[in-house]
Amino acid sequence: MDRLTADRDWNLAVNALDHLGLDLTAYKRPQLERRLNSFMQREGFPDIESLIGAVQREPALYRQFHSYLTIHVTDFFRDTQYWDYWRNSIQDPQQRHWRVWSAGCSWGAEPLTAALILQELGIQYDIIATDSDDTVLDQARRKLFSQDNYVKIPQAYQRYFYRQGLDWSVIPLDGGTISYRRHDVTQEALPGPFDAIICRNVIIYFEMPVRHRILNDFSHALRPGGILFLGATETFLEYSQLGFEAIAPSIFKKIS
Ligand SMILES: C[S@@+](CC[C@H](N)C(=O)[O-])C[C@H]1O[C@@H](n2cnc3c(N)ncnc32)[C@H](O)[C@@H]1O
Question: Using CA atoms, how far apart are residues 145 and 142, in angstroms rounded to an integer?
């Protein structure tokens, strides 16, 4: 297979970044190689050694580099129809409080979408929103959204937002809380039990064994009857083996 980075350089990067807490081997290599090479070009590093030396010396550069390696595309109500499936899957008259984990939440559109849906349904919630990237988490905590982000919000929910200069922000929601914290899904899952886990467009970036391990962790972190919500383009063929039933496109229920 053609590689953008020689194995020697790749191994150097893997070892150095492992010491800084980033496991490159968890991710599919070609995409990370493209990001790594484009970061080096953009920042003017002639070779991998100089890049590694610099990120080891400068925490701010490491943070920038770490953030650059991963893709942060997200949106409010991303793949709207799938949020409709999720809304239907959580309508349980017995369950009036939901503990939800949004894993790989990027700059926060996903947990906020979940909160708005729960809020409209009159269901109480506590949402823990995590990402491995501090830069997007800072942005999520600021709760400032561009006009382009705002126009993705369905009209019925726009009344929760207000102008803040050129941006938009969200009014305090009284139905529950969203807390943001750094967490790497390749490490141990957050302590459950959760009523729902939303992890969309994150595990597609991982190698198969890592992806499988994460899905297994999610299965253990969900209560029986809990709901797992994956990305619209993600396949989860081994769902029954991991204790789930498929109840709607991209929605899986932990078997009681
Ligand atoms: C494409 S975005 C998806 C955002 C959102 N879930 C959505 O579907 O709209 C992928 C997110 O996963 C995060 N991510 C990548 N590796 C991660 C890891 N090991 N642990 C937690 N989050 C990770 C990235 O920082 C990024 O914010």
Answer: 9
How many residues would you count in the chain?
A: 256
Q: Who contacts 226 (Cβ-Cβ below 8 Å, separation ≥6)?
A: 193, 194, 195, 196, 197, 253, 254
Q: Identify whether 193 is preceded by a cis peptide bond (ω within 30 of 0).
A: yes
CA of 102 to the centre of ligand 1 (A): 10
- Quickly tell me which residue has 């100089």 as its tokens: 50
Query: If you measure from the C-alpha of residue 178 to the centroid of ligand 1, how many angstroms do you get, rounded to a whole number?
Result: 17
Quote the ligand 1 centre to 74 CA distance (angstroms): 9
**Residue 150: both structure tokens together:** 């705002």
Strand 244-248 versus strand 161-164 pairing type: unpaired
Q: Which residues contact 247 (CB under 8 A, 6 or more apart)?
A: 89, 227, 253
For residues 90 and 247, is the Cβ–Cβ distance under 8 A? Answer: no
Is there an atom of ligand 1 within 6 Å of 211 CB? no
- The confidence score (pLDDT) of residue 181 equals 97
- In ligand 1, which atom is closest to the CA atom of 198? 6
User: Which parts of the chain sit beneath pLDDT 50?
Assistant: none
112-146 per-position pLDDT tens digit: 999 999 999 999 999 999 999 999 999 999 999 99
Task: Indicate yes or no: pTM above 0.85.
Answer: yes
Which residues are paired to 124 by β-bridges?
A: 97
pLDDT at 6: 86
| Cα–Cα distance measured from residue 179 to residue 101, given in angstroms and rounded to the nearest whole number | 10
**Domains, the chain, with CATH or none:** 7-69 (no CATH), 80-254 (3.40.50.150)
